[in-house]
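User: quick one, fold this
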Amino acid sequence: MVNMKEVERIKAKYPAGTRIKMLEDMDDKQPILAGTLGTVCFVDDIGSIHMKWDNGRSLALIEGVDVFEVIV
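Assistant:
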C-alpha cells in the first residue's frame, strides 16, 4: 500500500500529459510491449498511473513494478 505522501510525489512527477515510453514488456496477460508510447491521463489515489497508449489501449502503470521512462 502506498501512503498519501508517496501518492502526491507520483502525481507531481507524472502530471496529465506526460509522455511515457515502455522499456520492458509489462508483466500482464495482455502486456503493453517495450517501445510503446503513451500519455498520462491521471494518477489515482493509490498511485497507479493511468495511461492512454498510442496503440489505443488504456492499461495503468505502477511505478517500481513497470519499467518505463518519461520522454520529452
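User: anything notable?
Assistant: The first helix runs from residue 4 to 13.
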